[in-house]
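From the pipeline queue, job 12 of 40. The input is one protein chain; the requested action is below.

Action: predict structure.
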Amino acid sequence: MKDNALNLPSLRMNRLARHKARILLLCFFIAACSVPFGLLKAAKVGSGTNHALIVGINGYTQWPALKSPVKDAHRIADTLAKKYNFSKSNITLLSDKTRDKPTLINILTAIEGYLGELNENDNLLIFFAGQSFEDDDGETYWIPIDGKKKSKLTWLKHSTIISEYLGSKAFKAKSLLILADSHFSSKLVRSRSISLTPYDLRYPEKILEKASRRSREVIAFGDQHWPGSAGTDNFGLFTYYLDKALNENELEIIDFENLIFDENIFLPIQKIAGVRLVQGRLRKTKMDKGGQFIIARLAPAILIDVVESTISPEKGYPGDPFTVTARTSTVASEVYFNINNKKQPMQGSGTEWTFKGNFESVGSAAFTIAALNRNEQSGKTFAGTLAAIKKRAEAANVLTASVTPPHGRLWRRQIHLCSQNRPTGPHGGFAHR
């Protein structure tokens, strides 16, 4: 492989040193009670909404199929939503398994949409795992799921994506980070590494100040996707160590550069694959102002209980409607009504939720209601029973009666009854006997 890497920053501290730094940071904040306002001000300046476009492709039609990128993409999306300040609603996931597939048009539409959607306080992370290509001129490309082997027009050219979208003035987001498990041309990247590390006792305040400025960063594997193995839990090599860094990070806030260029993260990648990660800032843009893309670790998600539920009515005939309400112990992300092995979402928000359905076949059916937190974990569920009862036959009133013949022995006489309330047969009429 051609060495297209830029000089990497010096080795980041190992996990033990990071743990020590965290303890020192705690001591610093306890002692330095005279500067909380500055830190709070920096936090306010550095705040923003994080968005992510996550792409993973396995099943190509004209390119060799891959095994792990879909799994990689879903794992990174899941980790960002559960462990860091990325809302699920702000994560766009395109993979073989999603409804919207990672086609050329869908990926470009998603990127183009961010031009009008994001403002100066927003941040965008783009993750790509799949086939990529580097031509003889050093141009690099991502291959969408519908990319044709012999047509570059069906590929995603990195220089075009940058010039027309991510590096243009129309892209107003504060921070951009491209995390690519793929080729990415060093011609598009300007070498620049952060000098600040978590060793600095003022790291939280300083990194928040940096996060208030614009940034256009790239961290890429720098070669074809390296497949998963038993040693990487069948995740791709790049994703395995990226996810490891995200899950083992102990700092409340951290920038991606320090997160990934920890010696326990990037060194194994380079040693196993024989590559050098591509790292730096987008070259052909004036939008980078030396900022940093930072992420904040979320507090552990508490379990949410369903504390109360009402069913109205508790019994009904098949086909009749019923309404279930539920109240949760705290704000829930999702609440589900489970009956007859069917998991159905309830409507609502906060702590008040409702489900409307219809009684089914005659008999009793047990149900449960479960509330999920952001990690899709449930607390105490509510259990109950719905009963569909058999509809009783309608009563028939006797309106007329006759005896034939009117006189004679009882056993020879026939009694005719005529009912008006219960029609019989497809032609109406009355029930007679």
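Job complete. Residues 1-13, 23-45, 423-433 have pLDDT under 50 and may be disordered.
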